[in-house]
Records
---
Amino acid sequence: MAIEVDSSEQFAGYAHPERLVSTDWLQDRLGAPGLVVVESDEDVLLYEVGHIPGAVKIDWHTDLNDRVERDYIDGEAFARLLGARGISRDTTVVIYGDKSNWWAAYALWVFTLFGHPDVRLLDGGRAKWSAEGREYTTERPTPAVAEYPVVERDDESIRAFKDDVLAHLGNPLIDVRSPEEFSGERTTAPAYPDEGALRAGHIPSALNVPWGRAAADDGTFRSPRELEELYRGEAGLAEGDEVITYCRIGERSAHTWFVLTHLLGFENVRNYDGSWTEWGSAVRVPIVRGSDQGEVPARRG
Amino acid sequence: MGRMTTLPAPLAQIRDDFLELDQPDRLVLLLEFSGELPELPARFTGHPDLLERVEECQAPVFIFVEVDEAGTVFLHATAPEEAPTTRGFASILVQGLSGLTAEEVLAVPDDFPQTIGLTDAVSPLRMRGMNALLARSKRQVRAKTAA
């Protein structure tokens, strides 16, 4: 790795502590060669209001999603994007954002589709940086364009498609949406724009563990012990399990993917980014209404 | 595009201001609107009962419509500082709708948000947030003029 990991005690209990950095660690290394800080928010204008000095912006929607097809950008576009932000393949990237790093985790997941080797989250994200009274600036950095190789996106290892989910039924499936979305009272997160699903409910056998339960009030991740209790205890996940997570469009579930993969060490976790906006509109897929998980359905035709 | 001509003057002006800018500058203008969103009048701030509780951690946005005896609409909105895009959308509507008659507000095309040239800069999904604000404002105008 290009830059030493944050070896602070608070991260030691996580499976992959090298995936997190603290605000202190980052403050001490701002401007270090080989380090690029990336802000990724739900709100497309939040970066412009003020960001960590030197941080560049990557927007989940306008940068990481393809403009025409419902898919992520391809290897060439990713290389152009990262090169323009001054990121090369050996750069240590630290991503942070609003809402307990919800979108930052999503950006990290997309970076991982392209196998970027060293990408980390700032634990606590924007909220913690602000709460500690640290500096924000509106000055936009002008990074020198870097060479980033064209890497083919890996859609197998950490990404699941609808057919993968159908074949997966009977294995652990985590629905990270709100209880109201899970039960089918509503198809969108409260107060969010309607992203359009024709049916409400959840995928049969899915367990509802809202993503935000993995975050503490200050936006940091919950402690290793708390996460163990939540996912191994309450949700019953066991070593070696293959897990798929989903939400509406795959963003909240990327946060849970990060927790399961990097903080708890599960090695076979995939994020179904089609999520409810695909499943809830797809023809002839099984759906369960109500707060019970529901049975794994018999295979159809 | 006949309906364009029926757009109330303040909204037409806002639309034209956005459309004459290139994409990055449209975001800058939206940020300016965001900064211009007025504080809620004091008479609202002591009334949490008027606020809809929003679950999860989405930045809550609240809209209050008043219609005076002459039928003039006043729109008030509040959204947190950490939600500048939402604040910008709300501010556009506060500036564009306040002072219009109820009839004029109700006649504003529902797709006004799609006509101001922000869809590419902000993303189509996010623009739906502004559609929801416009729809909510109209719904309140309708409710307050129905009595």
Note: The interface with chain B takes residues 43-46, 48-49, 59, 61-62, 98-100, 102, 126, 178, 180, 189-195, 210, 212 of chain A (CB under 8 Å).
---
Amino acid sequence: MKTDALIKQLSSNAKATRLYGSPGALLAPVFALSVVISFVFLYLFRGGALLPWTEFPPASVLEFGAVLGIALSAAHLAATLAIPGRTIRPALAVLAVSCLALGAVLIERALGDSSGRWSDFPAAMFASVCARDILITAAAAGVPLFLMAGKGAVLRRKLAGFLLVLSSASLGAVLLFLFCERVDAAHLVFCHYAPPAVLSLAGIFAGRVLPEI
Amino acid sequence: MAGVASECSPVPFQPASRGGGNEARVQDIPNPPDFLETDPSLPDLMRKAQAGDSRSYETALREISRMLRPFLRSRLRDPDAQEDLLQEILLSVHRARHTYDSSRPFAPWLHAITRYRLIDYLRGAKKRNKEIADDSVMETLVARDFSPSLENMEFLKEALFRLPENQRRILELTILEGRSPREAAAILNISSVNARVISHRARRSLGVILKELGYEDGRIDQTTLF
């Protein structure tokens, strides 16, 4: 088909389009919905056993903030990737800093952990209730995020898939703070943080479900 | 416009080297300030196009084509490939038009789409170079000076008959009927990506079948026909 004919065909079929909007404005309600979905799933799976807030140790505030930063920044990056030509540097910087902060906290925990449970790996991860919960909530919470990205124009689908799954799985890890009382480093690394890392690699393939432009 | 400066690092433009048969490399694709000088009316045209104004949309697409042609000429030697890639870019612009914010510069948005499509094309070029070896038998068979004698047509029909139905149908549409891959995809009610994949497999399979049937150097071994 000649280019001229293509232009005439495309312009003759032009209809008013619903604008996609800015990443931040789009992400806020979608991320909130994902949080609600994750919380509901975890609440049901854990039989409503929420931990009391008074038992939230100070050291975990940084850890909580770091994991939340990963979940939020990964989702924001994916929303930004759905708009061609937008810069991803600010959200990428937040993601990098959050990952470093989490790494620092985990190293500090590991050095102070004398429980000797590191030898439980890999059985700990595959048999863990926490890992199971993260897997299921990642799948459920990932749906609104994928729908949000799919309505845009994602050029880098593999990267977007990776970030979307990282975000939804990290969200599960964030909310587990409300349900899981264990603070030993081995459990946190293998059952709270390794599953999102592994799942996000699978997200590279999940990115194929996003429409190609 | 400060937003544009922060988005795009000022990398000096390096034209692609023009060696024998070498296309542009991915690293040679420059950043927006060196890439395009966009018409200042484009944001307004796109805004009207997003509102459903066909005329503004046609003007915008023509302006985009006018801007991209010199860039594509500097990247690809084959004029047919330039037009194909330009059409791919226009289709992507069409599918992504709802994501453009008319209050922001147009160049980074168009550049991102163009860059993505060009990278896609360059990556596919390696596979296409391999396809050429398989296509040469088929192209010779359907060349204009191909004698439509009874033996040759029966030969081609026999070769096509041995293909799976979806592969045979797509070759009939694109080669025998001269339709574009997009038109073939629309007729067969499949996506254009799927049509390209099936076409690629069909050409490779047909090349193998033709060789099995004894087609070599323009001569057909009649004893292997049936």
Note: Residues 1-24, 141-148, 217-226 of chain B have pLDDT under 50 and may be disordered.
